[in-house]
Amino acid sequence: MLAFCALDKRRQDDFLAAVNRYLYASPRQRERFRQGWVRHVLEADTAAPSTQADAGAQMGPVR
């Protein structure tokens, strides 16, 4: 909820519109939405590595 409140008005509207499309979608459309979201999240994870992953890379391989 806090993350939603931190968004600007346009992004809040975009988020609510996406939720609304998901809720009223057919099961097949919902699955496509889910797959698209997973791809989006995975791309974001690979584009911006976490600080924990950075720390692990600096320390070298675990033995």
Can you give a write-up of this model?
It is a single chain. This protein has 63 residues and is mainly α. The protein has a domain at 7-45. 79% of the residues lie in helices and 0% in strands. It is built from 4 helices and no strands. The longest helix has 21 residues, at 27-47. The protein is flat and about 30 Å long. The relative contact order is 0.06. The model has no long low-confidence stretch (mean pLDDT 80).
Lay out the secondary structure.
Blueprint: H1 2-6, H2 9-23, H3 27-47, H4 51-59
Radius of gyration based on Cα positions: 17 Å
Low-confidence stretches are none
Rounded average pLDDT = 80
User: Number of helix segments?
Assistant: 4
Beta-strand residue fraction: under 5%
By helix and strand content, what is the structural category? Answer: mainly alpha
**Bulk shape:** flat
- Please give the number of β-strands: 0
Helix content: over 70%
Secondary-structure element order, N to C: HHHH
Q: How would you sum up the major sheet?
A: none
Distance between the termini: 40 Å
